[in-house]
Amino acid sequence: MDKLAKSPANYVPLTPLTFIKRASKIYSDRTSVIYAGVSFTWRQTYHRCCRLAYALRSCLNVVKNDVVSVLAPNVPALYEMHFAVPMAGAVLNAINTRLDAKNIATILRHSEAKVLFIDYQYVPLASEALRLLLTGSNDGNSAQYAMPLVIVIDDVDKPTGVRLGSLEYEQLILHGDPRYPGEDVEDEWDAIALNYTSGTTSEPKGVVYSHRGAFLSTMSLIQGWEMGTEAVYLWSLPMFHCNGWTFTWGVAARGGTNVCIRNTTAKEMYKSMSQHKVTHMCCAPIVFNILLEDKPHERYKMESKVNILTGGAPPPAALLEKMENLGFHITHAYGLTEATGPALVCEWQTKWNQLPKHRQANLKARQGVGILTLADVDVKNKKTMESVPHDGVTMGEIVLRGSSIMKGYLKDEKETAKAFHKGWFLTGDVGVIHPDGYLEIKDRSKDVIISGGENISSVELESILFKHPNILEAAVVAMPHPKWGESPCAFVALKTSGTTTESEILDYCRRKMSKFMVPKKVEIVKELPKTGTGKVQKVELRKIAKSLQISNNTSPNYQQTRYQQDEVHDQDKLHAISRL
Amino acid sequence: MDKLAKSPANYVPLTPLTFIKRASKIYSDRTSVIYAGVSFTWRQTYHRCCRLAYALRSCLNVVKNDVVSVLAPNVPALYEMHFAVPMAGAVLNAINTRLDAKNIATILRHSEAKVLFIDYQYVPLASEALRLLLTGSNDGNSAQYAMPLVIVIDDVDKPTGVRLGSLEYEQLILHGDPRYPGEDVEDEWDAIALNYTSGTTSEPKGVVYSHRGAFLSTMSLIQGWEMGTEAVYLWSLPMFHCNGWTFTWGVAARGGTNVCIRNTTAKEMYKSMSQHKVTHMCCAPIVFNILLEDKPHERYKMESKVNILTGGAPPPAALLEKMENLGFHITHAYGLTEATGPALVCEWQTKWNQLPKHRQANLKARQGVGILTLADVDVKNKKTMESVPHDGVTMGEIVLRGSSIMKGYLKDEKETAKAFHKGWFLTGDVGVIHPDGYLEIKDRSKDVIISGGENISSVELESILFKHPNILEAAVVAMPHPKWGESPCAFVALKTSGTTTESEILDYCRRKMSKFMVPKKVEIVKELPKTGTGKVQKVELRKIAKSLQISNNTSPNYQQTRYQQDEVHDQDKLHAISRL
């Protein structure tokens, strides 16, 4: 047995790059990418990737392991770069477009990006980031760092002429060679992508994916979601989130069609669904609100069910039910950047179809079961690393192991070592395992509220608050309490249609939850403070909660704590996702 | 990038063993295996596997890389051994039950099997094989070889008491420990299974699979066939054929139900489909005849469509159409033992639904496109190793590369080296690539008939002959010809219902094919000669054809050339598969 050696015929590095080569051969004339008035076939997309990869190598001197960064919305160029950059042997770094110039400069410096692609819309933001990088106003280290080459991605449908320097994406494509096959992947452990976490509590960390991990995650997700061939995938989820939860690569694997949109408004999404007969889309549950609160004239007729994979936050049962009634079929997933996107999928069981709707919604809100390429998922007592019983009650830290987990954090041995513990990746999330083996998140470790020795899950409280007919957003944090140590403090934003008082909400809580769980304080606010990536800033809420405890009479000016207040607009709602 | 090292959390060997551990956790109460009056849940099946693995290690002293052979029909024990044997660190060798004692003895000797499990039904055959092994009557080498430990698998539903020695499967299970977690897979390149090719032209070769290859093939096939969760899989395909085309592992991956049957008669199959609401089954096209020619009282009502994955021989268009009319949905795959079963799947395209039925059937009869875990599939000129144009006409050898290709042939460096050529695995099959990228087999290399410099595909001729209303089986081989070098000679077996003469068939051929392709000779026979695995013995037919050429007036007594004539019965039809 042992004498049989690996050969190039029977041991080929696993990489998502095989998906596009395959698509170019067998789905050659199928539509690969649609964006506004432009569309491509798989043959064309592949040739554009070959050209770009060639141009990166020959015109821009990109070599193996170089980082190629990009700041762009879901346009065809960003899709193509998911293949072209690794085909050039380089590592794709898709930057979150909601970040401010300072954060972007930090990422460019830390990743040592050799090239930076900028969508025309983000030229002002990128210019400011480059200025910070150049002047070193950030940390004074600019002298040691070479500036990235800048290439503007003009709009491929309606070119604007906006430039920053002389290079433009389509010109680069023209310089390339469509016959260039790309560099061989020498080792499937080689890096393919670099994604920065948003870092609510610390500096952003650079999560590195291997070709192997990306390939396996992609396989698992098209599997776990049962995404068939000829899927029409709407890009409502930003591709910069874990490479679009791997569906950048996955749509190529299935020979599907990518429907790219620049803005994720209700109108744009409904229009795309109707026009292109969308079958699949991913989004955070907060997008459900956008889709449900659309204006009647913005809604187009959906001809068939649209499958939604949602994650990032447990979808409130009430929202799930409303969405299903509208004709969406929702699957809930859980994951995190470090796990190459979704790591668990709430796999539906036929027998659940017979349950009442609200019970179904509760089951669907659970995080579910590990995807097929994860070697194992467990919930463990963090101190003893012993597995919790499958009782749906005992909480522990959710831990994962498998080849779809990141390689580690770039240039951060300390954080990498902290993340990997005794053969497991620690998610930092707290959950339980139900008797049927399905996992349910109860909280982020740091978001657990310990009141009088009882663990209170802020997620659980938020989920109950969400069910209140007038509540749009809710977040619960710990507030210092002289007697109980900590007690829950709730922040809620109301729907435009409804009015409610703090005492009415407290009454509601008393009816719906155990006494010890009832928030000691409910603050009604206009909108919850969020990070540039749209995550609720619990750190800020905790500060406010602390001040509330000291002086209950002063209403906090929480608006001033807002991060990037000027950038908040509808689209931010898209990204209010806790982990993905 | 390069500094990020592998750790047990993010680099876990790929193995199908993760599928059953996962199934035991999340599908624990679902039915895993049904056989006659017996059924198990996934928790039970897993625990039985743990017990067996433990017993193999502790009672039978099995150690890493030991070969554990088994001679059994599709009973639960054979299914369980697909997990239990590798859990013990050993290599599963499921032997084709249609082989004769001499061949079985050869396999036991060559594989150095340490343990041999024998289904009670095969005790006489196995006894004879063991006798040959012991007396060395085969090649006189017995002295160098230790006899395998023998364990009888009695019928789990209705125990018969048949024994060969003292050990019995269920007793072994009882001796095991359900908490034994199995040996760790240290390296995904380690062997998991050993499957012998049937060797129509040479000695059987031992094809070795790695855990990695088995994992990846399984992932691809449940994907390529779009097998959803909760599938009910009927074991009409023997598990000893490439480990049931990987569905032994695949059904566990999807949390499906295995319906095991001992006999693949029409009655048994229809009854299982109806009783257990079967959703999926695999078989060779020859099984279509069994299902179509059933007696009316044997047919049970099928409540919903049954998906069939077929392969081994291109399914004749006429048969496909009849089967679809009966309520079967057929997907065609192509593969071979060396590729861990199916390597290409004829992925259906929605637009084809609008074509006329016969055109659809022709498209479906093509071998299709590479599965997702194959790095590449191509058709190449064997001399130059250049790819043929995608014109549907130019023939070349079908070549594959990827991690689902076998490790190699056990203890056969020469054949292994021959199979791997310039980074490709040579299938020995001849095909074309159509403009849409779909591949179609034209012939086995050695089955191409070269007549007057023209390549004639015997498969193509057979396919035309199959369409004749009175023809049940057809095989075409080369016959020496004084003028053309070679010319086609057809052997046909007629349906019980029909009568036809040679000249009528020749007339039919003249109407349906190019002149140079028309067989120079048509022999009507009662049944085609087949190997123990049911493959048509073209070697034998060639001998007959040669004699026909010399003396056209002597009708050959082809029955005497038959291999294992006494073993031929209905079930053999199941295995008349050219490659899988």
Automatic annotation (TrEMBL), chains A, B:
<dbReference type="InterPro" id="IPR000873">
    <property type="entry name" value="AMP-dep_synth/lig_dom"/>
</dbReference>
<protein>
    <recommendedName>
        <fullName>4-coumarate--CoA ligase</fullName>
    </recommendedName>
</protein>
<dbReference type="InterPro" id="IPR020845">
    <property type="entry name" value="AMP-binding_CS"/>
</dbReference>
<keyword id="KW-0587">Phenylpropanoid metabolism</keyword>
<feature type="domain" description="AMP-binding enzyme C-terminal">
    <location>
        <begin position="460"/>
        <end position="535"/>
    </location>
</feature>
<feature type="domain" description="AMP-dependent synthetase/ligase">
    <location>
        <begin position="22"/>
        <end position="410"/>
    </location>
</feature>
<dbReference type="InterPro" id="IPR025110">
    <property type="entry name" value="AMP-bd_C"/>
</dbReference>
<dbReference type="InterPro" id="IPR042099">
    <property type="entry name" value="ANL_N_sf"/>
</dbReference>
<keyword id="KW-0436">Ligase</keyword>
<dbReference type="GO" id="GO:0106286">
    <property type="term" value="F:(E)-caffeate-CoA ligase activity"/>
</dbReference>
<comment type="pathway">
    <text>Phytoalexin biosynthesis; 3,4',5-trihydroxystilbene biosynthesis; 3,4',5-trihydroxystilbene from trans-4-coumarate: step 1/2.</text>
</comment>
<dbReference type="Pfam" id="PF13193">
    <property type="entry name" value="AMP-binding_C"/>
</dbReference>
<dbReference type="Pfam" id="PF00501">
    <property type="entry name" value="AMP-binding"/>
</dbReference>
<dbReference type="GO" id="GO:0009698">
    <property type="term" value="P:phenylpropanoid metabolic process"/>
</dbReference>
<comment type="similarity">
    <text>Belongs to the ATP-dependent AMP-binding enzyme family.</text>
</comment>
<dbReference type="InterPro" id="IPR045851">
    <property type="entry name" value="AMP-bd_C_sf"/>
</dbReference>
